Amino acid sequence: MSGAVRETWSPAPESDRMILKELRETVGACMQCGTCTASCPNWHAMDVTPRAMWRMVQFGMLDRILESRTFWMCSSCYLCTLRCPRGLKLTSAMAALKRLAGVANGPAARRNGSFYAAFMDDVEAHGRVQETSMMQRYFIRRRDPAAPLAFLPLGVRMLSKGKVHLPGRGMGGVLKPLFAKARELEGTP
């Protein structure tokens, strides 16, 4: 071989295979056309394209799936679902991957899940993202006293360019009933 690195993965354990079964059924008809990736407004921030994510689901590559931040970057805009030529419910599959990561609870899932939860909590509380309160929520969830220091240079740059919204602005909880209804429908507390 010409120095190419061959990538390997571990097959999913039996208990996780059951969890992946529904996901495989959802994306089983994926023909790898790439329409989902081309439609995604967040594809540039993902470490694995949505198309590649569906292939990893089909192959049961659970360890690689859970290491990825792709499904956490999904903004649930439904463009992939609307444009899929096979009519696959890809946005629902991304949501299922988030739930799967919550069950698996690995280090990458905890870190990415903490950010996602802080983001959603902030939107629920303020009706939009307020960077300062969202990052406070994130750091509290991370329980890592060094984490804020890693973000300090970015925070200073954002503040100097007027990109940080200070607390006190927003819609003040106007979305709380919407979030409550979503929790009711999902059967979560």
What order do the helices and strands follow?
HHHHHHHHHH
**Number of E-type strands:** 0
Largest sheet composition: none
Strand content: under 5%
Principal-axis shape equals: globular
> How many angstroms separate the termini?
53 Å
Helix content: 55-70%
Subunit arrangement of the protein = single chain
Radius of gyration: 18 Å
Calculate the mean pLDDT score and round it: 82
Identify low-pLDDT runs: none
Would you tell me the structural class of the helices and strands? mainly alpha
Number of DSSP helices? 10
Could you walk me through the main structural features you see in this protein, from its secondary elements to its overall organization?
The chain is an all-alpha fold and 189 residues long. It contains 10 helices and no strands. The longest helix has 20 residues, at 107-126. The protein starts with 13 loop residues before the first helix and ends with a helix.
Task: Give the helix/strand layout.
Elements: H1 14-27, H2 35-39, H3 50-59, H4 62-67, H5 79-83, H6 90-104, H7 107-126, H8 131-142, H9 147-160, H10 176-186
Summarize it.
This protein has 189 residues and is an all-alpha fold. It is built from ten helices and no strands.
Provide tags for this entry.
about 60% helix, mainly alpha, 10 helices, single chain, about 190 residues
